[in-house]
Write a structure and sequence with these properties.
Oligomer: single chain
Radius of gyration: 36 Å
Shape: elongated
Helix content: over 70%
Amino acid sequence: MSNRVCDRELDVLQAVGSGHIAIDLREHLDLCSVCRDLLDVARAVVDDRSALMREANLPGAGLVWWRANMRARREAARTAVRTASLDQVSLLVLALVIAVMFLGIDYRTILTSVTSSLGQFTVPLVALAAWLILAPVAVYFAVTEE
């Protein structure tokens, strides 16, 4: 297989793109089979592109606006859910800190009492902690669509 390369190939492509072939390039095309083949292929590609551009069906402006509006609403709702989830986690941590402060128990005391014996840990505090953890999760699942 021979290496078929010509220095004027770029000129041929630019001429096809602009739609105007200069006189000196026409003379070169009469002599160079590589550039003639390139011209035929490039014209076919440009003709196909033009035909596809004519046949393209664009949606109406109202439909494009409606789709953009719906996408913006979905993104705003997604952002709100993310923010609400962050707020719920923050409130959960705050509620746990307030519960520990309200009961007057030092966090080191809680950790030592949990590790030393689970039986001495108060049942109401476990119930409160479970409720504080499960309530935001239940609210999250109640308000999400998926």
